[in-house]
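Example complex used in Figure S2.
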Amino acid sequence: SATGGAKQRNPNRSKGANKGQEALRVANIAENSSADQKQACKKHELYVSFRDLGWQDWIIAPEGYAAYYCEGECAFPLNSYMNATNHAIVQTLVHLINPDTIPKPCCAPTQLHAISVLYFDDSSNVILKKYRNMVVRACGCH
Amino acid sequence: NFTLDNEVHSSFIHRRLKSQERREMQREILSILGLPHRPRPHLHGKHNAAPMFMLDLYNAMSTEGKEDGYSYPYKPIFTTQGPPIATLQDNNFLNDADMVMSFVNLVERDTEFLPVWRHHREFRFDLSRIPEGEAVTTAEFRIYKGFIHERFDNETFRISVYQVLEEHIDRESDLFLLDSRVIWAAEDGWLVFDLTVTSNQWVLNPGHNLGLQLALESTDGVSVNPRLAGLIGRSGPQNKQPFMVAFFKATEVHLRSIR
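Predicted assembly (401 residues):
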């Protein structure tokens, strides 16, 4: 808030403000570098082998599948819809509605695709089932 | 290159899972597959015709989208009326299906019914274990006809498949003719009969599922023992056992829970 009547800018005050900005700048650098150390949001591979699970007696095919998962740090996805101004509005609105929650973007799948599994049921009937949205194809910040 | 290579390689290393991790992974995948527990099939069913047919179907679907596309396995044999009456008109049925299920034949009786001599075979399939929310889009009954040597090439048989509507102790069951066609004695291969309507009835009213009857007649109307005409039954080779297969479409969207 602007304080009225102060003609002369208080030399000490400006010195104090500089220190604050300096501290903020250093914090930003620290945060950025730590963010760099923490990986950016991306797809990671986790191979699931049905054989390793001891299931080859009832799962006929496939032998296993690449079950990806998304992990990593997210910067708010600034794009054609969410530019810096809208970002600030969203942050302010969310803050006004619920001050103690900070809207944090999350690293999650942006594309999924199907996998087919062939397996026996208890009566030795055979089931070939297509599971949509089973395997992550791409990750992104939501 | 070393770090890149190392990074790529490390993402593919799947180390031996610890027992706790293994149990968690099993629970996780069973929940995704929509199964309450891991099935325990009895082993002798593994090499029947149905699992082999389904594996061909799985491989056909896995190659879909390749340049040469895929061909529906176990093409039906020609009948005297010309090209096979493939109940599944084109390969799109595979694309559209969310699930395909084959059913083992639960019973088979070769019955010669007195006083009128009438050979026929009965088949039963249990459709009560179909996962919730799946509707039958296509279904077929498949039976293999082997080559018979001692018959003359130009001899033919009339093969008829009936749905059993009601059974009686003292007389023949009430039957509904599903399909009838004339086949060459010298022909061998899979015979395919459309069961789509019957399967939907059996799914909606499991109590009405009294199975199928198959009968064979010579051209002059005399009942013929199916075995003598080369029709493979329960005692035949495992990879030619009769079975039923149904194609399903999910009636509701299965939303995966966020994990």
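The mean pLDDT of chain B is 77. Helices of chain B lie at 2-12, 19-33, 49-62, 92-96, 196-204.
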